[in-house]
Amino acid sequence: YKFWSARIGETLVAKHGVWNIGLGFGRAQDAATDKVWLSCAKIADFVSVCYGINDILQGRTVEQIKTDIKTIVTKLVDSGVKVGIFTVPPFDFEDYREDMRLAINEFIFNEIAPLTEYVFDFAKALANPDKPNFTVHGDHPNNEGCRIATEEFFKSVDINEILI
After folding, report:
1. Three-state SS for 140?
2. Mean pLDDT for back-to-back runs of 10 residues, the chain (164 residues)
3. Against a cut of 0.85, is the pTM above it?
């Protein structure tokens, strides 16, 4: 209940029903199949999408991950759902996977952003200022990192305006 998604939901629940269907080890590859997760999400008024790390860790290519993310967002939008998207967060990568993360985020900012209500850049909240590909509060942010990410989310996104 201290993870960033739960904290965001906890803040919104007074005015809005919140359904966190995020799963540990969730992958864009799986959601893009339009089966359980995506088919359920298409009934919502608003969906925040956050994918990428697990896809990178499982050996998917940048192009495959970009296609999956675009499929998810497009299917939601085509179903009448308002969509927000989170960038792939920093994850202490020191190899080609950091290049992948950056390429996917560039795609999110340039290609996906026009389809969405907002893009939340995790790096602004969680990246180490001296080494932007590294985190300050751990790959899976600790309680402090989740608190900071939640605060930054609400500073940068007027979610109440979107949910009207």
Report:
1. coil
2. 80 74 78 88 90 91 97 96 93 93 97 97 90 86 90 89 76
3. yes
**Residue 60: how many CB atoms within 10 A of its CB?**
20
Q: Mark 129-155 as b/e (b = at least 16 C-beta within 10 Å).
A: eeeebbbbbeeebeeebbbbbbebbee
Closest-CA residue to 140 (of 12, 22, 47): 22
Token pair belonging to 124: 């602004």
Rounded to whole angstroms, the Cα distance separating 147 from 18 reads: 18
- Residues 64 and 123: their CA atoms lie apart, in Å, by 22
Rounded distance, CA 156 to CA 118, Å?
Answer: 9
With contact defined as beta carbons under 8 Å apart, do 158 and 114 qualify? no
Beta-bridge partners for 85 = 49, 119
**How far is 150 from 86, CA to CA, in rounded Å?**
12
- In 3D, which of 9, 42, 43, 60 has the Cα closest to residue 51? 60
Q: Give the total residue count for the chain.
A: 164
d(CA 61, CA 89): 17
